[in-house]
Write a structure and sequence with these properties.
Jelly Rolls, alpha+beta, 10 helices, four-stranded antiparallel sheet
């Protein structure tokens, strides 16, 4: 059913997570609950909230820009407001939340519960939300790998700050074994022209996605998506020097379907555009 109170909307669908930025007109919403966890952060000023009720929690105060609420799966809620607001909603599938909880705790992730929250403020969560917002507006050459890494950062933060997860002693810094690391690097170099996902890289490394991200960074010094982006730019430079392909073709060969976006990343990496490096006009 279409929400008639939403005037504008932009959605980004990711594995286990849907990002929904929308403008909402004044309304009263009696919510019976759903199968997903919801996190909603207010992006605009001037909110006139009459009531926010999530489970047993209740507030009759207006919300400030940057404040958020969490409504966990199966939890009923009531919202009533007299303003037109812009918000960023995260729709989180419980299986994603539970999987990452299990990887972090090395226990039964299904027993870890996300906590309902009203009118909270968290600068770290707000910063993560701004990074997701940027992904709504651009085709990043980092692509799937970056967005999946960002999803992990979000869920891990929620687990640490807004869940029943019991903290455990962090292990001494480790690295991927040399053979597993080399297998991952070889795999990345073989598929620089294809979308790469955390799940497949973790399989190659024979570890969980959470541990893969942590161990890869401790082994290489940068996150997986940063390494992939760097290697794509280096490959693009090598292909440019061969003078066999057009810039448009090179863009595709390094996994970027948007040539202008490719040029921007290339300039950020090397300080010059692909066309200037070739010493000729853009084909």
């Amino acid at each position: 059913m279409k929400e008639t109170w939403i005037s504008e909307r932009r959605i980004l669908q990711l594995p286990g997570l849907t990002l929904d930025r929308h403008s909402s007109k004044p309304n009263e919403l009696d919510f019976p609950g759903c199968n997903h966890h919801l996190l909603c952060l207010l992006l605009s000023e001037g909110n006139r909230q009459r009531i926010t009720c999530i489970g047993e929690q209740k507030s009759e105060k207006s919300q400030l820009k940057g404040e958020f609420w969490i409504c966990t799966a199966k939890t009923a809620g009531l919202w009533a407001w007299d303003s037109t607001d812009e918000s960023l909603m995260f729709v989180i599938e419980p299986h994603l939340f539970n999987r990452i909880a299990e990887e972090i705790s090395e226990g039964d992730g299904s027993r870890v519960e996300l906590l309902n929250t009203i009118s909270a403020r968290d600068p770290h969560l707000e910063a993560i939300a701004h990074l997701f917002q940027a992904e709504l507006d651009r085709d990043n050459i980092g692509g799937s790998l970056y967005r999946e890494s960002l999803t992990q950062v979000l869920i891990i933060h929620l687990l640490r700050q807004y869940s029943t997860l019991q903290p455990r002693v962090q292990p001494i810094a480790e690295r991927l074994p040399t053979q597993q690391l080399q297998a991952v690097l070889d795999y990345i170099h073989s598929y620089l022209d294809k979308p790469l996902h955390l799940a497949e890289l973790a399989v190659v490394a024979n570890t969980s996605q959470y541990h893969f991200c942590r161990l890869f960074k401790q082994s290489i010094g940068i996150a997986p998506y940063q390494y992939v982006l760097r290697q794509r730019m280096e490959k693009a430079k090598e292909l440019l020097h061969q003078r066999t392909y057009t810039i448009a073709e090179i863009s595709l060969l390094v996994g970027c379907t948007d040539q202008s976006r490719f040029a921007k990343h290339f300039k950020r990496h090397f300080g010059t555009t692909p066309s200037r490096m070739l010493g000729k006009k853009l084909p």
